[in-house]
Design brief:
By secondary structure, the chain is of the alpha+beta class. It has one domain (22-107). The chain has one helix at residues 2-18, and strands at 23-34, 47-53, 56-61, 78-84, 87-92, 97-107. The protein has a 6-stranded antiparallel barrel. A hairpin with a 4-residue loop joins strand 5 and strand 6 (97-107). The longest helix has 17 residues, at 2-18.
């Protein structure tokens, strides 16, 4: 009986983020910054992307095992942002795509 109680507690705590639905929105790329994180022997530089969708603001980090060309992602441009739990994908109007890990979500300030 105790095992069921622990399982139910874990399911409730993890259920909301683990089963989050996939959301695709038009967004504005607010900022692209290189990170200064991790060992010096990494093959590729990681970047933090700040993304503003209607009602929310996302912080997303590119993986360190893929090459990211920051000049393909113009700050202030319109992008398509797909959020699926903790993973995200950014797509430009030119068709360039990049996967990223969502590190922060906040309610966007109303203007």
């Amino acid at each position: 009986m105790k095992k069921f109680g622990y399982f139910a507690l874990i399911a409730v705590l993890l259920g909301t983020s683990a089963f989050a639905e996939k959301q695709t929105n038009q967004a504005t790329l607010r900022d692209v910054q290189p990170t200064n994180f991790g060992p010096a022997k990494k093959k590729h530089q990681q970047y933090d992307l700040s993304i503003l969708v209607p009602g929310r603001s996302y912080q997303c980090r590119t993986p360190d095992n893929r090459n990211f060309n920051a000049t393909d992602f113009l700050v202030g441009s319109m992008i398509t942002f797909t959020a699926n739990g903790k993973s995200g994908e950014v797509k430009t109007a030119a068709g360039k795509k990049e996967k990223c890990t969502i590190t922060r979500v906040e309610d966007a300030p109303t203007q």
